[in-house]
Amino acid sequence: MLEHGGRLRAAATHYRIALADWLDLSTGINPRGYPPPPVDPRCWLRLPEENDGLESAAASYYGCTDILPVAGSQAAIQALPAALGASGGKHNVGILTPGYAEHAHAWRHCNPIPLEAAGIEDSIGSLDILLLVNPNNPTGHTWPLEQLLDWHQRLSARGGWLIVDEAFVDVTPGFSLARHAGGRGLVVLRSLGKFFGLAGARVGFVLAAQSVRDTVREMLGPWALSGPARVVARQALLDSTWQTETRARLYEDGLRLAHLLTGCGLGASTGCALFRYLEHRDAAAIHAALAQQGVLVRLFKHPSALRFGLPGNEAEWHKLEEALLRVTGKAPKVST
After folding, report:
1. 123 and 233 assigned to the same domain
2. pLDDT by residue (tens digit) across 149-180?
3. Which CATH number characterizes residue 120's domain?
């Protein structure tokens, strides 16, 4: 199994800092996520049922009716190679690098071809499958809708597939292909773990043609989502007021984090509203120095880089600022 952000207990043990004293910025999850509503206790005592309004709420939110709920997009990532008939085959699968490592891991038995963003256009003619994360994790690179639709048309015309993981797109829904899903050659993955902050609920969706969804459903089996998770997810997807307010706040917080990193001398970063990505030759040393102060960020080795998630309140913003000041000797006051 691959390592991911959020391994806070391991960090607490390694650095001998109490769990409650950490600021965890390692995951890119909204630190002020959707507040879970009270759940009818009977949800815990019955098997989940599908006619509870979750699918219709998701269809309204994503603008697409071709939807299958799954236990987080991770379940779909693991199922897709077999679902598309490519498991163990010789398909040429273009996968962005750096990118979310679970995708390359899932397609490792095919012919995965690492691609940089600038090299996709030159390679599209030789690919059977192109797999992107938009915005990309961890770099935050985004592709305009017109470009994605062009690649999809060219791939599907010869029986190929475009797969787009949109785990971080909710703040900028104009980049989403969701409303175009359901036709031939396109699979879109969505999740409630990042923007909604409901990572522990393990709720995701596969937006794809009926044949793909039926195959994934058969592979995953019944009751992919728990009853309580379905209740919370439905309400979150229907709460447009919370969504609008949260998009505005996350956009401002993303800018604030970018300015903080630049102002403290670490240089320019890339990313999206939920995280900033910073390539730095001393990333490992900076990661360790922050961890020694109870601030956990995500470390990448190839290339040497850090990813910073968002603090959730003013106390956390100031903890990060003070930790950066001790590491770099230069940090601006964080505006409130």
Report:
1. yes
2. 999 999 999 999 999 999 999 999 999 999 99
3. 3.40.640.10
Note whether 101 and 222 are same-domain residues.
yes
Kindly report the CATH number assigned to the domain that includes residue 287. 3.90.1150.10
Residue 201's contacts (CB-CB under 8 Å, 6 or more residues apart) are: 36, 192, 193, 228, 229, 232, 233
193-196 long-range CB contacts below 8 Å, 24 or more apart? 193/29, 193/72, 193/73, 193/167, 194/28, 194/29, 194/30, 194/167, 194/168, 194/170, 194/274, 195/30, 195/168, 195/170, 195/171, 195/246, 195/250, 195/274, 196/30, 196/33, 196/34, 196/170, 196/236
The answer to whether the pTM exceeds 0.90 is yes
Q: Count of alpha carbons within 13 Å of 312, Cβ hemisphere only? A: 14
199 and 115 in a common domain: yes
Give residue 198's domain range: 41-238
